[in-house]
Specification:
The structure is a single chain. The chain is an alpha/beta fold and 135 residues long. 41% of the residues lie in helices and 16% in strands. A five-stranded parallel β-sheet has the order 2-1-3-4-5. Strand 1 (8-11), helix 1 and strand 2 (33-36) form a beta-alpha-beta unit. One of its GO terms (cellular component) is cytosol.
């Protein structure tokens, strides 16, 4: 990596059904050079040595042995979710690559939804709303 050049991060895509959300991609672009999987596969020889990280968003891209073998300078796989069950940690660590995740990112919203569901159930909120519409 040349001086002043941002570290390259492999992502599946930006936007669309499975890509990184556009707002999140804009934030990432402030600190990283994003390379989509399409760009990587279209010019593997040039891109493979630049990529130092893979950003996994909604379990994509799939991290397998073939991908790890094609990225000689890979240092970290950053998972944007809580769990890492979809990643083969033993295989990844055999390549000397670290794995990170965001364990507390959705703890508060999950608790909020849980409380809202319990309150709605205890107060029979859904039943009351439906009966207001019907009668």
């Amino acid at each position: 990596m040349a001086e002043g050049e941002l570290p390259a991060v492999l992502i599946l895509d930006i936007g669309g059904t499975h890509g990184v959300l556009e707002d999140l991609a804009a934030l990432l672009k402030k600190h990283f050079h994003l390379i989509t999987m399409k760009e990587f596969l279209g010019n593997k020889e040039e891109m493979r040595k630049k990529i130092q990280s893979v950003f996994v968003f909604e379990c994509r891209p799939t991290i397998d042995r073939e991908l790890l073998e094609s990225l000689p300078n890979l240092k970290v796989i950053a998972n944007s979710g809580v769990g890492v069950d979809h990643l083969d940690l033993k295989m990844i660590s055999s390549f000397g690559v670290k794995v990170t995740n965001t364990p507390h990112a959705v703890a508060d919203p999950t608790a909020d939804i849980g409380m809202a569901l319990m309150l709605a159930s205890a107060r029979r909120l859904v039943e009351g709303s439906v009966s207001n519409f019907l009668g």
